[in-house]
Amino acid sequence: MDNQENLEKKDNDMQNYLQQQSPSLGKDSDNRKRLNQTSEEYLNSLTPTQRRQRITTLLVIAFISLLTGIDYAIILPTAWGYVNMFMHNHYGGFVVGILLSVFALSGSIAGILFGFLDDIGVSLKKLVLCGTVFIIIGNTLYFIGINIYVVVISRLIAGIGMGLVPPLLAELTRRSTPETRTPLFAKILGCRQVGLFFGPCFTIFIKQLHFKLFGLQVTMYNAPGLLMAVLWVVVILLTLCFFYDSPITTTDPKSLSEALKNNSFRQVYKYCLSLIKSPVIMVLLVTSFIAYFNQTALETTLTPFTNRQFNWHEVDVSILFAIAGIEITIVYIGLHYISKRVRDQTILVSAFIILSIACLIGVIILPFSKIGSTKYLPIFLLFVGLDILALPLIAVTTATLFSREMNLEQQGIGQGIQRFVVNIATVIGPLFAGALLQATWTMLLVMFIIVLLATILLLFMYRSFRTNQNDELTALISPVNNSS
């Protein structure tokens, strides 16, 4: 009886805590207005020195975002050749999948830890320096690459460093008003897209590298590790000189510690389960998983498939990634205008129909394509183009629709659930694609089936989605007269 009473008391404590953190909808609206006014007053009261510190800090964050794009654009196209230096072709694809998966897995786990440390008041500057050190160590080991185990461990360590991204995104919230927040996010995250553009340029540069450094042979396969290690050393210097912690904090460390002490993981787990019982939310989680699963599977397969099918090399794949980055940017810009006239759920369904067509093209055409023949290269490029067209639409609309299905007091934990599902997809996708690298048609068939299933689910639940006039997508691109 005592245990039952204690359990009920803890459940009541959890509910009271959540109610204290997020009052009713009307009260939350008033609190949000006061918070908005406080944020605006804070930014307006900054001294010239504080404004300069804010700008330099945001520039450092933008540079970090740029490097994440460059890292992705030069590691992925060369990873296939690097792995094949240690492995036979039959196992190379699976190991490439492991490389991408351990990077995503360690990053997602470290992101939770770094975000927690940031919430309880640990200096963000110290967290950035700590994460950057992990990235430098990981890239240095990737450059050394004594054997395949060192290469895999290097990406695991570098992924830990990427845990600095969530607290940096939280810092953007502290450094902006509600009106400038989304445009600021778009600008910072857009820097990663710029990095994807510059990545192929670095690939062309490192292809010319053939020399020894400290007795190690520098090639186009291990040079990305050396290059990224040097660039992240620059981040350390910039952070030491130009990064400043926010003078205000959004969380009381004492209240957070008490909340953690009074509530068990079991209660939080039960609360999470209660949030995802809605069929609409379940469908959105499934579609989010499928979108990122499809994206990472395609990225894992692209380099080895084009190498075998069309005799492409690293530079060719890098150019394709650059063109894909341009297409994604155009899609995001177009989405800004389309979302004003078309509902998000309509865009989402249309995107999955496009994705279904892309997968169907691959399933139908691949059996007729002969290795070494470029006869079906235009159709392959059409498949990739349709796939890339659909994925950004899905990524954005699932996020906005998911936020609408959650009440204001559930936004934080709700988005956490969605990000967890996305991270799982980015881990499983590369492993799935790597394991079926020698059976590409089977992989495409499975992808087509699950995408078609998601399309049917969306059509079935179409009328169940909530509508909201305050569409967050309208703030994807900041107005001309707006400044962050």
Automatic annotation (TrEMBL):
One of its GO terms (molecular function) is transmembrane transporter activity. Its main location: membrane. Coiled coil: none annotated. It is found in: Membrane. It comes from the Eukaryota. It is a multi-pass membrane protein. Residues 1-13 have a biased composition (Basic and acidic residues). Keywords: Membrane, Transmembrane, Transmembrane helix. This is Major facilitator superfamily (MFS) profile domain-containing protein. Residues 57-466 form the Major facilitator superfamily (MFS) profile domain. The chain crosses the membrane at residues 58-82, 94-115, 127-146, 152-172, 184-206, 226-244, 271-293, 317-335, 347-367, 379-399, 420-437, 443-462. It holds the Pfam family MFS_1. Residues 1-33 are annotated as: Disordered. Residues 14-24 have a biased composition (Polar residues). GO terms for cellular component: membrane. The keyword Hydrolase does not apply.
